[in-house]
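Lab notebook, design round three. We kept the backbone fixed and only want residue identities now. Task for the bench partner: fill in a sequence for the structure below.
Input structure tokens:
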């Protein structure tokens, strides 16, 4: 058994609940350490379980790929967890695999959703996705609700913003079966996060995102040359520049500023009417903690906002966890199971 298989088996065998507070291992606290350690420990995970590929049509010409893994027995006896990846990710992203394995071990059906054109879904629809496409997530949830009566959603990073945006802006369209939602390291204010990425200490992350975004645009341009202009990506150096030159015009926005304003989930938090957990770390290098705090929550108390002192961006690597596991998945599954 190689390292990736051992890590995956360890997650599948782990069923215990989270500790109430996140505490990192000695000398692993800090936003950059937690972010990079989370990536490093989970990088070799692979999906070890049977998969059913679901094709969801969001709108004419837009098909989404969702990979479902069902618990044995009647489907209605178990809840389903829909997992939404972040910027540059897919259903193969390490945090998606880690979460999916752990949720399956706790008895959930697991559906790993690809955003528009992401991952292997690019073969179905090569169009660009963006943070405001809540209609795509709504289509996935409605499709899932037709298969199982109880479901929950968790989104990571940009996928967390999309989850909260759909829950607030499209709450009337949410299927009745959606019993709870969670968002981990979500950028509630996209403009503030674009600013944060341009800080010198975050150059590694911006380089990582830009390499992925530029490569993805070139593939799409090759597939759809009549839609996407060749060479446009050569004029951008930052995520904000990419959004200004590519995301905004092809997404129907005037510029990056309008895209950020209309697609940020923060202003819609007060409209959410389902149990929701928003989980961030105070030392997240990409999501300034202040940008997660100034939006009002529903007076009903149905939305919980938790900020840990450390944890980085989708990190949350603690001392007692096998490679690949992370505390955030345990925390939000506790919350969702109570919901």
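Proposed sequence:
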């Amino acid at each position: 058994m190689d390292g990736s298989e051992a890590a995956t088996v360890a997650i599948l065998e782990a069923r215990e609940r989270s500790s109430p507070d996140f505490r990192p291992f000695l000398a692993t606290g800090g936003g950059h350490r937690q972010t990079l350690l989370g990536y490093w420990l989970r990088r070799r995970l692979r999906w070890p379980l049977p998969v059913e590929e679901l094709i969801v049509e969001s709108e004419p010409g837009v098909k989404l790929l969702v990979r479902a893994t069902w618990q044995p027995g009647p489907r209605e006896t178990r809840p389903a967890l829909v997992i939404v990846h972040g910027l540059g990710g897919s259903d193969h992203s390490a945090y998606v695999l880690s979460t999916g394995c752990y949720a399956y071990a706790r008895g959930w059906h697991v559906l790993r959703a690809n955003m528009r054109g992401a991952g292997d879904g690019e073969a179905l629809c090569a169009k660009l996705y963006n943070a405001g496409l809540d209609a795509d997530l709504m289509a996935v949830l409605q499709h899932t609700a037709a298969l199982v009566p109880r479901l929950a959603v968790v989104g990571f990073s940009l996928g967390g913003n999309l989850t909260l945006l759909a829950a607030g802006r499209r709450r009337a369209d949410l299927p009745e079966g959606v019993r709870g939602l969670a968002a981990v390291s979500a950028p509630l204010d996209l403009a503030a996060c674009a600013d944060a990425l341009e800080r010198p200490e975050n150059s590694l992350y911006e380089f990582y995102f830009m390499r992925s975004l530029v490569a993805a645009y070139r593939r799409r341009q090759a597939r759809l040359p009549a839609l996407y202009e060749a060479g446009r990506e050569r004029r951008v150096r930052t995520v904000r520049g990419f959004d200004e030159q590519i995301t905004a015009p092809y997404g129907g926005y005037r510029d990056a500023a309008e895209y950020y304003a209309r697609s940020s989930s923060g202003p819609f938090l007060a409209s959410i009417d389902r149990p929701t957990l928003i989980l961030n770390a105070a030392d997240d290098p990409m999501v300034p903690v202040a940008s997660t705090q100034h939006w009002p929550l529903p007076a009903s108390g149905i939305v919980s906002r938790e900020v840990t002192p450390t944890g980085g961006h989708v990190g949350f690597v603690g001392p007692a966890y096998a490679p690949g596991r992370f505390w955030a998945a345990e925390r939000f599954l506790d919350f969702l199971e109570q919901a």
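Keep this in mind before ordering anything: The beta strands are 52-59, 62-69, 80-84, 109-113, 151-156, 178-184, 276-281, 303-308.
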